[in-house]
Design a protein that fits this description.
It is built from nine helices and eight strands. It is an alpha/beta fold. It is globular.
Length: 300
C-alpha cells in the first residue's frame, strides 16, 4: 500500500497554480513563470554576503549558529537552465545551512540563452576551484544541486575528476535532472501528476542548454551517460511521483557496477523539487534532515 502524503503537503500542493509547464513556451515565458514561483528572501538574521569566485558572482548564505562552521556546501541552484538568480535561493540556502550545519555558497551560473553548454558547468568548476584557491579545504566542501543544478553539479564533478585536480567530499542531488532524453519509466508515467515539470518540458529545456549543435547524449549535458568510477559518494533525493525519479535510480544501479557509491532516497507521493519547500510540510523537513546526516557523515 502506497503511503499517503501529509495533510500539510496536500494543502501546499493545492495552492500551487496550474499552467507552469508548457514545453512550447519560449524562454522568456519560462523565465517569467519560474521567477513567479520562487521566493526571494531569507529569514531575518540569516547572513547573506557577496563573494567573488574568480569572476563568478556568488553569495555566502548561513544561519548565525553556523557562522564558525568550516563545512561548506556549494549550491548549484535550479532554474531549468534558463532562469532564476541567487536571490531566488536565499531561503533554500538558509534551509541547507540550518539542516546540515554548514555555510552555503550559492553562485550564478550562465543562463543557456546567454551561452549554452558548457558555460554553466564551467562556472561550477570555476566556483569550486576559486573556493579552494581562497583556502577552503576541498575535503570540507560538498556539492548540492537541485533540479537542473543537480545535473550541472554532477557533470562538473566528472570534469574535476577528469582533470585530476581536487574533488569535493561528496555530492547531493535534490531531484536532479540527469537524463536529457527522459527515457525512464517515471517520465513516461507521470503525465499531469507533477505540477512543476513534465518529460516534454524537461527535454525542451535540455535542448536550450545543449544549444543548436549539442548532443543530448553528451555526458557533460546528460550526466546519466557519464562514467561514474572515481567520483566521491553521492546522495540523490527524489520524490515518488517526480518525473525525474528514474534518472537517479537508474544512475545508482549503474554506479554500483562501476564501483561508485550512490544512495537514492525516494519519498512516496512527493513531486519534483519538493525538498526546496522547506518546513512547509513534514516530508520535506525529514528529507532535508536525512541529507544533513549524509553530509555530516562525509564531512564530520
Amino acid at each position: 500500500m502506497t503511503p499517503m502524503a501529509s495533510k500539510q503537503h496536500d494543502a501546499v500542493m493545492a495552492a500551487i497554480p496550474g499552467g507552469n509547464v508548457d514545453h512550447n513556451d519560449p524562454i522568456a515565458v519560462v523565465r517569467e513563470k519560474m521567477h513567479a514561483i520562487h521566493p526571494n528572501s531569507a529569514s531575518p538574521g540569516t547572513i547573506v554576503d557577496p563573494i567573488d569566485l574568480d569572476g563568478v558572482e556568488a553569495k555566502w548564505i548561513y544561519t548565525p549558529e553556523n557562522a564558525d562552521s568550516d563545512r561548506v556546501v556549494l549550491h548549484v541552484h535550479g532554474g531549468a537552465f534558463v532562469s532564476t538568480v541567487i536571490d531566488h535561493y536565499l531561503s533554500y540556502g538558509e534551509i541547507l545551512s540550518r539542516k546540515i550545519g554548514c555555510k552555503v555558497v550559492c553562485f550564478q551560473w550562465t543562463w543557456a540563452d546567454e551561452a549554452p553548454y558548457p558555460a554553466a558547468m564551467n562556472d561550477t568548476v570555476t566556483a569550486f576551484r576559486a573556493l579552494v584557491a581562497q583556502g577552503i579545504d576541498p575535503s570540507r566542501i560538498a556539492f548540492a544541486g537541485d533540479s537542473c543544478g543537480g545535473g550541472i553539479a554532477l557533470a562538473a564533478m566528472c570534469a574535476l575528476r577528469d582533470s585530476s585536480g581536487p574533488l569535493p567530499a561528496c555530492l547531493v542531488g535534490l531531484t536532479p535532472w540527469l537524463d536529457a532524453e527522459q527515457t525512464g519509466d517515471a517520465a513516461m508515467q507521470s503525465r499531469g501528476r507533477d505540477p512543476f515539470v513534465s518529460a516534454d518540458w524537461i527535454r525542451a529545456r535540455f535542448k536550450d542548454y545543449a544549444g543548436p549543435d549539442g548532443d543530448l547524449r553528451d555526458p557533460g549535458i546528460s550526466p546519466f551517460h557519464a562514467k561514474l568510477a572515481g567520483l566521491p559518494p553521492m546522495y540523490l533525493s527524489v520524490g515518488g511521483i517526480d518525473t525525474t525519479a528514474d534518472d537517479s535510480t537508474r544512475l545508482a544501479e549503474r554506479a554500483s557496477r562501476e564501483g561508485a557509491s550512490v544512495i537514492v532516497d525516494a519519498t512516496a507521493e512527493m513531486v519534483h523539487g519538493y525538498i526546496g519547500l522547506g518546513d512547509a510540510f513534514p516530508e520535506a523537513t525529514q528529507a532535508m534532515e536525512r541529507i544533513g546526516l549524509f553530509i555530516r557523515q562525509q564531512i564530520p
